[in-house]
Amino acid sequence: VLFYIGGNDSMDTVCKLDKYINEKGLDFQVIGIPKTIDNDLPVTHHSPGFKSAAKYLAVTVNEIARDSMVYNCESVTVVEVMGRDTGWLAASLGAAAPNDFFPVLGVPESPPVHLIYLPEVPFSFEQFISDIKQVQKQHKSVIAAVSEGIRFADGRYVGSSAQSGQTDIFGHSYLSGAGKVLERLIQREIGCKVRSIELNVMQRCSAHLQSVTDIVQSEAAGAYAVECALNGLSGIMVTLGRQFSYTDAANAANKIKYFPAEWINSQGNGITPEALKYF
Amino acid sequence: VLFYIGGNDSMDTVCKLDKYINEKGLDFQVIGIPKTIDNDLPVTHHSPGFKSAAKYLAVTVNEIARDSMVYNCESVTVVEVMGRDTGWLAASLGAAAPNDFFPVLGVPESPPVHLIYLPEVPFSFEQFISDIKQVQKQHKSVIAAVSEGIRFADGRYVGSSAQSGQTDIFGHSYLSGAGKVLERLIQREIGCKVRSIELNVMQRCSAHLQSVTDIVQSEAAGAYAVECALNGLSGIMVTLGRQFSYTDAANAANKIKYFPAEWINSQGNGITPEALKYF
Hints:
homodimer, alpha/beta, four-stranded parallel beta sheet, 8 strands
């Protein structure tokens, strides 16, 4: 039995291998087990890896918020979060609770992230600046979380809009992340202190902040996959929920589960109570 | 009594206030307590804050190394570390031990960081590329740590060398960090997979990874400062070492303790056993 652990691409591999096994009549099974910090695998309620990445984000953004809050000036921090196609990780920051361990005297504790932008919602520079100005009426230091994959209504990535014909000192066209682009936009349109932070691979590799539930469920998902194998199954993907189950791997292969439109607020810059319940 | 906690600038404020108190004959004392992740305050053996930042770096770079190690291709990761004038933090990565908690089968565990570049050593693109190629003979994935303040022999910052006349989509001249510049250099000169990671404010605000020794010593330094105050002292800075002591704040005001030249290896890309002993 081959147990193949991964996301949408990996489940496509499971399908192809299973097809090959059947065609050749081989005595072999292949079973997919979900694992992606993007949380974008269909059918399964969630994917192992996501909770750990979300935990890293919640802890880190709280600390970043504290770091910016101590200065006595207006500031905006743009935190760029992984998610090229879907916004699950950025959206999870809507569930980040204020950090009560290190209270700052006189500063009312509020959730660290004020604005959230996902690839699922067409992005607009004008709306973004207007949103920030709105939050600035109440908060001296504003934190906005953006998925790396946010794009304009015409489909162009915000993160590649800095490319237009520009080259660096080596003559290469320059690729800038969404956070950097928005940092410069705020510099021009608002002019306050601004910083963009790319959380980079730390989101997926910060093992010291792994979610315990994630570890326990990952192991249990593996055990369930072995049961499936012993029952002779092949070409399936294990699914997680209140109970383990499985689905035809074809239902997940190269398919994307987007962040539900009804879980995004009407302004397109945050999540609904329903989403909060999911997280 | 005013207890003023901070780095070189703050100690300058301590001096100025003490001078003012003396001139006016006021019944007031001012006492400086060191705190800087840069570890660049003179006289004191080290400064509170540094150990916590170094701990964050060691943990995180180990995880980044693991993240890059799992791919079966040549890669270079450039980690940009805080330190505009001095390289203490980047140098501390020379003491980062391999992470034995999550061993990868068949991969011999080695210290995660192969090359270290400090502001104290004139930087050369040619030497950097030659160093990387040298390490690539032994390691599939190479990790280089650079201080944000590395500069060429003529004093120009590597991190600003991308500015030359270029503007972004908003017409602003573009400021690029040292890591990004080196990422593009490697892309051009070596052509393998390359990524630069800016550890940004997380280095100074990751409270969840605070060093316990750091916390204990900070509190003790505060208590010692109170003793100094009760003894009638003013215009001084507390110093840390095997024992607490104090020095005239003027000895630290606007002065910088550089990473010692004799603790840098002869190739200028790592630290000596003596430095390791200090860390």
